[in-house]
Amino acid sequence: EIIGDDEIKGEFVDSAKSYYETVHYPIVDTTIECLSEADRILKKYVQDFESQVDDAFDSRLDSDKLEALYAEIRRSENLLDDFTHAMDSMTGNLNLGQQIGMKLGLETSMMQIKEEIKILERYLDFEHSHTNVMHDVLSRMYQVKTGVNEIMAGKAFNATTHTYDSSKMQLGWLNHLVPEKKPKKTYNFDDYTKTLEGSYWVLS
């Protein structure tokens, strides 16, 4: 209320207004922006996972599924080894029915993991394309933390004059509260093959 009241005057009030506008407001605004951005990124991350990797209702973004896949691969590899050994060994006593049953079991296991392998490959591609998606948000929140530590240190307040002076603080973090500007991507159209389809040029 003091900050927004132009009727209240005085050195303390003026210094407090300047201090809060310079230091506190940017921290509050950046924190709100970062939380909103983090929420948007996480929602998009889940949507991208469902569309690019696996849209199954019970899909989980953890290592359990991958570990289960590796276990299944190892089990199938063992079946393959057993089957190959039995077929190649002169002492193998498997009859035709056992051989067929073993082969069908192996084929079923291999078919089951083929789709899982495809999902794993899509997952690895997905992870590669989503590396550091939270980098900017986390970097800005780190600067917010630095700013909060500066505030908590009480460097700006002068106990003798009862005024605030933000120049007593280390304020380098303020310059990093805005989103990092990414360089504009440029395209070399000479690198593409151009094909005229109707009234449009298609690049490939």
Automatic annotation (TrEMBL):
UniProt-listed InterPro entries: LXG_dom (IPR006829)
Domain LXG: 1-194
One Pfam family cited in the UniProt record for this chain: LXG
Residue intervals passing through the bilayer: none
Highest taxon above the source species: Bacteria
Family, as annotated: In the N-terminal section; belongs to the LXG family.
Name of the protein described by the UniProt record: LXG domain-containing protein
Organism (species): Listeria grandensis FSL F6-0971
Lineage: Bacteria, Bacillati, Bacillota, Bacilli, Bacillales
